[in-house]
């Protein structure tokens, strides 16, 4: 079940909200836990077992960490944290990376592991990172141990951000799991944020995705340089509106249920450097790796060689987190190298460039990264990158490029504008009485247009579900 589906919008969500709000406060977490499991199990009921196992293991380990700390047994507490981390990483490895490693070994003549052909549990990369944060936060003293199993299960399985983020650390949500209020203003803000996210996903990402799919499917001999760039620009906008739209919907749903989640995107395409881009893109993932991997490895307070090593490890892990394929590792290392170059040599020089040149520099490198991210087959990736840099089998332009450009130009222009703070800035300048009258009308239009699209559409992917 996805948020941008008629089933979710007109059946699941209304039923959840109705039952949730007629339930007494002390029972709401239990009711929400049931609905979380129904949501997750809708498409993969077998994998609910994993959710139960993950919840039980991390709940138990949190109690062990707290017990050892109370006895001043730091070694025992550390072992409990390590045990929890090993379990979560082993779970992630088995379902997400086993076949990747087995296939890679077999490809070089070392069939040491059987290929199991297991389907990937939806959102496993997100919820394993969330549950790992719990025992670490308890050990560090950043959060109290959760003694209520129902409350802890609600945190692990919280459906608004369960299967595609944002990644919520336990210390950020623990207090809200135990106690939260339900002001009408927060609920109304949740509806607004959800509607904006739905519009991003359905009206922009889905349409741009069809343009990218058209170019990705072209034989290399027919791909032109202009077409390759048009395709990767379409994908750059698709993945932004797909994922930021989902994140907005998750934040909106959280507010409807009384929770407040942190923002996951901050207009990344207005960045002036790669470093700034990663401060604005998928903020929760960057924060997780920085706090639980990069800083424990020494962070910036190390020698230059060790700093380079730390960054390459973190960004290699960031890349492979996205998918069990070599192109994702390459994508992560590509950013690791760029960030090392900016941190050690180029960063201050970029600040002296003209602002338009800074934006062009960042957008160019990010666009190249999305080609690496999107094309998983290495032979096709080489051909696609070659086409982007002038080695296209189809030449510089062709009739198809101009046809697609004309057909998608309004959507591309709208998407480019919507990826900046321009519209929000203009909106804030309107008189209060104007925007208060216009806002409900605009939100209703977005909901109606999105519903009309979903009624008629067969193309409705969520890119980050596979992660």
Automatic annotation (TrEMBL):
UniProt GO molecular function: acyltransferase activity
State the UniProt keywords alphabetically: Acyltransferase, Cell membrane, Membrane, Transferase, Transmembrane, Transmembrane helix
Cell compartments where the protein resides: Cell membrane
What is the membrane topology listed in the Swiss-Prot or TrEMBL record? Multi-pass membrane protein
Is Hydrolase tagged as a keyword? no
Main location as per UniProt: membrane
InterPro entries tied to this protein: Ac/AlaTfrase_AlgI/DltB, AlgI, MB_O-acyltransferase, MBOAT_fam
Q: Which residues cross the membrane?
A: 6-23, 30-57, 77-98, 105-129, 149-168, 307-322, 358-375, 381-405, 437-455
Coiled-coil positions: none
Q: Name one GO biological process term.
A: alginic acid biosynthetic process
Q: List the GO cellular component terms.
A: plasma membrane
Among Pfam families, the record links this protein to: MBOAT (PF03062)
Family of the protein in this entry: Belongs to the membrane-bound acyltransferase family.
Query: Mind telling me what this protein is named?
Result: Putative poly(Beta-D-mannuronate) O-acetylase
